[in-house]
Amino acid sequence: MTAFTPLDLVVLVVYLLGVTVWGAWLGRGQTGGTDYFLGSRSLPWVAVMLSVVATETSTLTFLSVPGVSYTGSLVFLQLTLGYLAGRILVATLLLPSYYAGALTTAYQLLETRFGLGARRFTSAIFMVTRLLADSVRLFATAIPLALITGWPYPVSIAVIGVLTVIYTYFGGIKAVVWVDAVQMGLYLFGALVTIVAIQILLPGGWSDVLSSSAQAGKTQLLDLSLDTTVPYTIFAGLFGGAVFTMASHGTDQLIVQRLLTCTDKKSAQKALVGSGVVVIFQFLLFLLVGLGLWAFYQGRPFDSSDEIFATFIVEQLPPGLTGLLIAGVFAAAMSSLSSSINSLASATAYDYWAPLVGARDDEGRILRAGKIFTLVWAALLVGGAILFIPLSQGTSAVEVALGIASLVYGGLLGAFALGVFTTRPGQRAAIIGVAVGIGTVTLFRDAMAWPWYVLVGSTVTFVTGSLAGYFDRQAA
Predict the structure, then answer these.
(1) Domain holding 87: CATH number?
(2) Burial, 151: exposed, middle or buried (Cβ in 10 Å; 0-12, 13-18, 19+)?
(3) Residue 259: pLDDT above 50?
(4) pLDDT digits over 366-390, tens only?
(5) Contacts of 79 (CB under 8 A, 6+ apart)
């Protein structure tokens, strides 16, 4: 068994400081809100594609997904088929609407169709959801730091938050996207290193891992069950996963903001669909890591499934390499956290502050306000992660975060469907539809697994909004 050595600490510190300084340097020359939040709409699609993948998976992939296959099987991979299908639908149905006008946030589209109230209502839902879900993501990242240093979780969370907010504050979305692209490469390298290490550490290598996993039923890829309370079935993956992705990649400012940084619609479509292919490979890689860890530890129980991979890195890998892989954990976390901070700040600046103070076209004021909102949201995310600590025992962060987002994504997707595909419902009907859709999913969430939340919520929202619009016209 090895420990976290001085060499590992040097590798980790050099990486963290290097990324922070480089990210801050990338933001030089910014003069307005479009530079800070949209990268002057000039970022290459490949970098945006990698940023999308890094943003949506991050630490939850690095730490939690291996824990999912460690305690279960490979059926989680079924979701990625729906993820790819959902991206194709967003690229076909929603992206043309975003690029039809010079939009600054996803919710500006709803203002054009319904009014400012609908824009602010849906933007507020995004903010609350992102705050809750990404607080869980940030907490997951504090696990390895606490294991290494012995620091309490609150201290570990604060350290990660401070380092990330420095380059996010100075660098804006340009720094977020480019740092994401580099950091994604690092944490994928960490997964590949672990696969090689398991081959060396286990006498029978991966042939024994796969054979023993198969005997235990852990290599199962498909679940044909029709039970809607089972989260990972082929039907939940294809239908639930597709609709979930339509919401997360078509209505969530966290992802839409990245797509709006591309030079044109075609580039954004390539970035979005390409990210779906990369995600399939990435999830498969980390699920295989989980099978290898299961064979290595012989299925021994852990207090939290999110601790399994972190424990292996710290205890089993040689000095220097341990530091590099822990840097990969931080890379994953910082990419997600920086994206959240910047998208939340942009939504606050464009959807609330600028219309309120009459600064819609004042690029300089939006830039200054955006930097202040960056600091505010960073503090709120750190505080939320600390509050999650007592609730974390025995839970998987990836499933908690996805469940939180799924509760409200259906309402958001239904609102966008009303805006793009209907002409009758007005603002009041849209807001009623969203409220009823989210309320329905929240009320009946225990009757179904989380992959179905968005499909149910979006359907209820669309139907309710359409009916409310019909009766509004009748009354008029």
Answers:
(1) 1.20.1730.10
(2) middle
(3) yes
(4) 999 999 999 999 999 999 888 877 6
(5) 232, 236, 237, 240, 241, 244, 283, 451
